[in-house]
Amino acid sequence: MSEHSGSGHATEKSSPLKMYFGIWAALLLGTFITYKAAFIELGRFNAAVALGIATVKATLVALFFMHVWHASEKLTKLVVIAAIFFLMLLLGLTMSDYATRPWS
Amino acid sequence: MPDSTLVGLQHEEEHHPELLHHFADAQQQRDASSLGMWVFLATEVMFFGGMFCAYLVYRRWYFGDFGAASKSIDATLGATNTAVLICSSLTVVLAVWAAQTARRTLLIGSLILTMLLGLAFLGIKGKEYKDKFEEHHVPGASFSFENVPIPGHPGEYANPRHAQIFFSLYFVMTGLHALHMIIGLGIFTWLLALAWKGRFTPEYHTPVEIGGLYWHFVDIVWIYLFPLLYLIDRHP
Question: Which positions ≥6 away from A87 have C-beta within 8 Å?
Fold first, then answer.
């Protein structure tokens, strides 16, 4: 389900292949950087770099491989945002508790 | 005018055998299916989210022990598996594109390639599990993690009970991820059978799209598992 609005034939006009291979190369590059960066001493930023790159990679997969960017159905985007929101609620509220306990 | 005549006329016009009566057109039917899949994936986000949450809590509590335990896993195998999954995600989008543009050979080839990459992933995972069994790093009666130094703290050693929690999380998270891969392989076997029979057309290829969404989601879970389980405290 890409940018076509009517029938499935519209995609043939603008081939998305170049974009698919570009995203694929970017994902492999991200993996390589994550792997290499893990062996460099960055202090507390090691985790931030690793998770930052992971988030960029996950976003690329969702937007372009899972076609969220060109989703013809707006509700799809709402479901994606809702999923992320509730995940953040789970992680955010749990960690704001555990991370602020003075006795642990 | 009675409604049944109208419906009958419309159906006559559309004539596509895969279009169900309650949808206006093929596009609406595809949108409804993919929306349903996305709702399922949202529940999967919460399913894996619970485990990621448990991981975060224990990682904070047993910071050094987790670093020591993570260091015992072969990071190169993990990185290779990440690359394998990313390549399989590419073959999945190629399969969806091939179905959209009626390229049967490319569709079948991409589906087979995706499954081979999925099997390669599970094979590498099996090698990793075998190593852990041999090193007695599997939680349980024969678990052993004695005198393993904590990275960055010379003279300090990891608490085996805390390391065991890391390995419990490691096996549950990668194990459930691997289970998802096995289910994915089942779905792709079914897709391959349908593609072989020539069931997919530019008008109707919803199963390829839905199966693809599932496969990409499993890939995204791995994208987070890789740095969290394999790459913490690697630096000297």
Answer: B45, B46, B49
Report CA B44 to chain centroid distance, whole Å: 10
pTM of the model: 0.89
∠ at Cα B186 (A83, A60), nearest 5°? 40
Question: Taking CB atoms and an 8 Å cutoff, what residues of chain A touch B75?
Answer: 35, 38
Q: Which amino acid is at B24?
A: A
Range in A66-70, A81-85, B177-181 the model is least confident about: A66-70
Q: Does the domain made of B25-230 have the CATH classification 1.20.120.80?
A: yes
Pick B227's closest partner by Cβ from A12, A54, A83: A54
Find chain B residues with C-beta within 8 A of A34's C-beta: 226-227, 231
Helices B104-134 + B160-196 axis angle, to 10: 160
**A43-58 average pLDDT score:** 93
Q: Tell me, what's the ipTM?
A: 0.88
Band (pLDDT 50/70/90 cuts) for residue A34 is: very high
Nearest-by-Cβ selection for A58 from B93, B224, B233: B224
* Domain boundaries defined on chain B: 25-230
How far is the C-alpha of B185 from the C-alpha of B116, rounded, in Å? 9
Residue B188 has a CB neighbour count (10 Å cut-off) of 25
pLDDT band at A6 (very low <50, low <70, confident <90, very high): very low
Q: Looking at the partner chain, which of B52, B205, B227 has a beta carbon nearest the beta carbon of A91?
A: B52
Residues 50-69 of B with CB under 8 A from A: 50, 52-53, 56-57, 60-61
Question: What's the pLDDT at A2?
Answer: 42
A65: chain B residues, CB-CB within 8 Å? 89, 92-93, 212, 216
